[in-house]
Write the structure tokens for this entry.
Amino acid sequence: MLILAFDTATEVATSALVLDGEVLGERVSAPRTLLEDVDALLRQASSSVRELDALAVGTGPGSFTGTRIGLAVARGLALALGLQAAGVSTLDALAAGAPGAVPVVDAKRGEVFVPGPRATRPERLELEPGSLCVGDGARRYRGVLEQAGYAVPPDDDERHLPRARFHARLARQLGPADEIQPVYVRAPDADRVLG
């Protein structure tokens, strides 16, 4: 099965083309270049969109706008190509790339998203001493986390990325892309400001 997977919930977009578990290509960029990345992956693998069997898309939690970008692209591609898709938690993809680690996604507003999923202030995390924390939230709040006795890999460590290859691996329930729901955890900033 040829799966195109991508996640745009964090400040870095990841995408991958995976055939029966084998990664044919992978890219890391900005969410705004997702379609360019998809095109490059297909060209690199000498494939076309017509050869795709399914999609796997990150559902967050993370950036409201970033998550929406990924879901919109998945829905558009699925509709245009007649594909089914699976939604995969960004936290689950991070955890798959760093077994035993705690995924920590930057939630802005001085908070992080962690498994639950839930939003919390990084200084309120209660983890086992020495726990390994990965993700853009772990990088951003490195000082707070390390002071609390947790470990954070170097900033350039790939375990901080929700690699799309793990989305493809975790894609279990294929179905209509328009039924995939984002995981926001809390209301968007616009609702908070306008509400």
